[in-house]
Specification:
By secondary structure, the chain is an all-alpha fold. The protein has 10 helices and no strands. The chain has one domain: Tetracycline Repressor, domain 2, CATH 1.10.357. 70% of the residues lie in helices and 0% in strands. The longest helix is centred in the N-terminal third of the chain and has 24 residues.
């Protein structure tokens, strides 16, 4: 049976607590009781909308990644320069995680890979769809290497994003993720661009 959709006013209280709990503790140490205690939302109410802590967490990650996709579409609208489109993909992604650090830590650091890979959040299809649209536009203009299949662009985007966030976390989150994209974006562009300098 499909669960009802949680009202926004409850999400506003619950979601930050869930992400704070998961970003600050080992994944297995987080429980619904602690989330309930910190948020002031009863366990019964939480279970009315979510079947488990995993369902709760991955539902939040899914919603947040849809927010990221909306931001990507908004920032890409009207941009015609292919290099700038790819740069914006990285900049918007990193800026989004700068503004949602608990989400970044949860999705890339504290959630075990096996659990994350089993969720639909891992596929991040909306972001991948947007990236694929940019790749297709780049191909039509001859701006990227024709021999690179779409999955290589996705792999590079995912690997660079994940590695950048892990490095930021390992160094105490002392800088803004978006402030440092040039160092890895130049590398990305050299790999994929059909014009070699």
């Amino acid at each position: 049976m499909e669960k009802p959709i949680m009202p926004s006013k409850l999400k506003d209280r619950l979601y930050p607590v869930v992400l704070r709990q998961f970003s600050g503790k080992d994944f297995h140490a987080v429980n619904i009781r602690d989330i309930s205690g910190e948020s002031g939302i009863s366990t019964g109410t939480i279970y009315k909308y979510f079947s488990s802590k995993e369902d709760l967490l991955f539902s939040i990650i899914d919603e947040k990644l849809l927010d990221l996709a909306s931001l990507l579409r908004m920032h890409l609208a009207g941009t015609e320069d292919i290099r700038e489109m790819f740069r914006k993909l990285f900049w918007v992604t990193m800026n989004f995680f700068d503004n949602n650090p608990d989400l970044a830590v949860t999705a890339f650091i504290t959630v075990p890979s096996k659990s994350f890979m089993a969720s639909k959040s891992y596929k991040r299809e909306t972001e991948v769809d947007i990236l694929s649209e940019v790749v297709e536009k780049a191909r039509k203009r001859g701006a990227v290497l024709s021999e690179l299949e779409n999955h290589y662009f996705v792999d590079l985007y995912m690997m660079i994003t994940q590695r950048h966030i892990q490095n930021w976390y390992a160094h105490g989150m002392k800088w803004k993720l978006a402030d440092n994209i040039n160092s890895f974006f130049d590398f990305f562009w050299k790999v994929v661009s059909s014009v070699k300098t």
